[in-house]
Amino acid sequence: MTAPIPVVVAGALGRMGAEVIRAVTGAADCTLVGAIDNTPGKEGVDVGLELGLEELTVAVTADFEGCLCAVSQSVRDAGKAAVLVDFTHPSVVYEHTRAAIAYGVHPVIGTTGLTPQQLQDLSVFSAKASIGGAVIPNFSVGMVLLQQAAAAAARFYDHAELTELHHNRKADAPSGTCIKTAELMEELGKSFNQAEVDEHESLEGSRGGRRDSGLRLHSLRLPGLVAHQEVMFGAPGETYTLRHDTIDRAAYMPGVLLTIRKVHSLEGLVYGLERLI
């Protein structure tokens, strides 16, 4: 029988991290070996008991590199590489991803906010280290389908705007998912939203952020939301709207587990769930 995949979760006590731990502990081919979180007063507590699960004998630690080092050594002795699932903060995600690769741990990154240059640097570092990894702006299969539909529709429409809506504790805007959707639409190499009037804003930011392609991205942040995205296309006499709504974070877990299972076979760093399905 194949040994289960050792998994470390960073941001373990956050909403996404907690959901990942539930999914990992419920998967027969995965085993939780580390839980990283810097919530004050939680150092050393059993992560399972803290999340209302059974005791998992995995203590919460705030020492990111210390945890990776210990896990890397223990699983190396057993002949198995570990996987890091990171749902933390844009301010630390680059350092976390680089550290994981350096310790021989396969990064599965759900935290958004990496710049194109950072992604390029990490891709080069991953290839040199021969450590496969994945940066996934959105783990929902439904969102991948929306993005593919948006890329197809962009062939036929010259006017389009994107709106993403998230809970008000999301740190970056626009979301990585929305940026990824725009990038897929832009692969055609065309320009969007040619101006027909001398447009100006009486309130700065009213028209959203404009990309070089002409696509405009809008971000909303409100309590009560989880994650939602809409792409609206316009043409004379019609509009065409694509929308995806995440109602519960459990929707992301099939994509998370899929990535955990496939990341060992990757030769470098991939960006986007569509590269894996």
Provide a descriptive summary of the structure in words.
By secondary structure, the chain is an alpha/beta fold. The chain has 2 domains: 158 residues, NAD(P)-binding Rossmann-like Domain (Rossmann fold), CATH 3.40.50; 106 residues, Dihydrodipicolinate Reductase, domain 2. Helices cover 31% and strands 23% of the residues. It contains 8 helices and 12 strands. The strands form 2 sheets. The chain has a 7-stranded parallel β-sheet with strand order 3-2-1-4-5-6-12, with helices on both faces. Helix 5 links the parallel strand 5 and strand 6. The chain is elongated, with a radius of gyration of 20 Å. The mean pLDDT is 95.
Q: Secondary structure elements and their pairing?
A:
Elements lengths: L4 E6 L4 H11 L4 E7 L10 H4 L9 E2 L2 H14 L5 E4 L6 H10 L3 E4 L6 H14 L3 E3 L5 H13 L5 E8 L9 H11 L22 E2 L5 E6 L5 E9 L2 E9 L6 H10 L6 E3 L6
Parallel strand pairs: 1-2, 1-4, 2-3, 4-5, 5-6, 6-12, 7-9
Antiparallel strand pairs: 7-10, 8-9, 10-11
* Major β-sheet strand ordering: 3-2-1-4-5-6-12
Structural class label: alpha/beta
> What is the 3D shape?
elongated
Overall mean confidence score, pLDDT:
95
Question: Per DSSP, what share of the residues sits in E-state strands of 2 or more residues?
Answer: 15-25%
CATH level-1 class of the largest domain: Alpha Beta
CATH architecture of the largest domain: 3-Layer(aba) Sandwich
Examine the coordinates and then state which fold CATH places here, giving the name of the CATH topology of the largest domain: Rossmann fold
Largest sheet: 7 strands, parallel
